[in-house]
Write a structure and sequence with these properties.
With about 400 residues, the chain is an alpha/beta fold. It has 20 helices and 8 strands. The protein has 2 domains: about 40 residues, no CATH class; about 270 residues, TIM Barrel (Alpha-Beta Barrel), CATH 3.20.20.140. Strands 1-2-3-4-5-6-7-8 form an 8-stranded parallel β-sheet. The structure holds zinc ion (ZN).
């Protein structure tokens, strides 16, 4: 801790500000003020938090729908709605094993992660041309914007496409150009996280990383997804080392179906900044304490967890427990076209089932902006927008 903030940076901040206001504007004081500001929330935010904690009124759906949000765990291929699946199949001259949109939706009953992945990989086969990836990404970002998602970090699975002969630049070109257009037309910001399929070899992941290097500026981080059990994070130590050397941030799916040990490995071997899912960390008190102490965010996906039978129901979800352990929990949709809801639907489901109050919702949304791969200034802009929303909607 900085020596100008001995025990209470908040009090210190006010003391320094008073001195500066009184004309004592030395560079040392200004620098101390900067330090204290970084360690304390703005005054407005502390007022907001205490007001929300005392707010016992029910949380209206409109409050959740309108709150500015960030999403950090969404697989772009998992946003493929059946209507688009049929359209892409038609224009690419492909046959689907379904006769109607309703039949596709009826097939979305899963026993576990593996049974979902079979359908997921069948779905991605309709993505062939750059225009398909562009249209898919546009459709998600448009939907996201309609839910007041202000910022999204999207996963994509290049190996699910290159493995069937689609060029890497076709995939990333379509996604990237949709992101640029969505920023310009809809005002939604987004970044891209490239995932390696963990059921494939590390050599295949390394080859994929090589393919990605010319597009380094378009990808903020690398991650690890697909079948978890039997494919521990340590299998990918070398490729994650290389990715970090190349300047990528790292994340990994761990502790969804896999044991807490996989979360340890993701932290210690892959040196990830965030854990995707991570809900099984609760089985290991030392791990839970480590995640809390290091402020490692979890990107939790409640509807996905229920659909894939990680929890029997949203009521049984351990989200509240995770929050009570001081973990930086965020809410996300994972594969929204398959799991029955986008981000707002996930928030509405947990609010209702776990009786979250306004303060819980505020913390969850705030965590997402804090955990995002954004600069401090970018985060601050979104957090200010969030606080303004809370201030203006307190009485509703
Ligand atoms: Zn996921």
């Amino acid at each position: 801790m900085h020596d100008t903030c001995p025990f209470n940076p908040f009090v210190e901040r006010i003391r320094i500000q008073e001195k500066i206001d009184a004309g004592e504007k030395t560079s040392a004081l200004l620098s101390s003020l900067g330090d204290c500001k970084r360690k304390t929330p703005p005054l407005a935010r502390t007022i907001i938090i205490s007001t929300l904690k005392n707010q016992k009124k029910p949380v209206p759906e409109a409050f959740i729908e309108g709150i500015p949000k960030a999403e950090l765990h969404i697989h772009i291929e998992g946003s493929l709605e059946p209507e688009l699946m049929f359209e892409f199949a038609r224009r690419n001259g492909l046959r689907l094993p379904f006769t109607s949109v309703d039949e596709v939706r009826e097939a979305y009953e899963f026993a576990d992660l593996q049974s979902f992945l079979q359908l997921y990989y069948q779905g991605v086969r309709v993505l062939v041309n750059e225009r398909d990836f562009y249209d898919l990404t546009c459709a998600y970002l448009k939907k996201a914007r309609s839910q007041n998602i202000r910022y999204s970090e999207m996963f994509f699975d290049p190996q699910a496409h290159t493995g069937r002969g689609i060029a890497f630049d076709t995939v990333i070109g379509g996604i990237h150009h949709a992101m640029l257009d969505a920023k310009q037309r809809l005002g939604i910001s987004s970044k891209l996280v490239m995932c390696f399929l963990r059921d494939l070899s590390e050599e295949s992941a390394i080859a994929t990383l090589q393919q990605a290097l010319p597009f380094k500026d378009w990808i903020v981080a690398v991650g690890l997804d697909s079948s978890e059990v039997g494919h521990p994070p340590e299998k990918f130590t070398k490729v994650f080392d290389k990715a970090r050397e190349e300047g990528f941030l790292t994340v990994a799916h761990a502790g969804e179906e896999g044991p807490p040990e996989y979360v340890w490995q993701a932290l210690d071997r892959l040196k990830v900044s965030r854990i995707d899912h991570g809900v099984r960390c609760i089985e290991d008190p030392d791990l839970t304490a480590r995640l809390a102490a290091d402020g490692i965010p979890l990107t939790v996906c409640p509807l996905s967890n229920v659909k894939l039978r990680v929890f029997e129901s949203v009521e049984q979800h351990n989200l509240k427990q995770l929050l009570d352990h001081g973990l930086c929990v965020t809410i996300n949709s994972d594969d929204p076209a398959y799991f029955g809801g986008y981000l707002t639907e996930n928030f509405l489901a947990v609010q209702k089932a776990l009786r979250l109050d306004r303060h819980d919702i505020y913390c969850l949304v705030r965590n997402s902006f804090q955990a995002a791969f954004l600069s401090p200034d970018e985060k601050q802009t979104f957090l200010d927008e969030l606080d303004n929303y809370i201030s203006q909607n307190q009485d509703k």
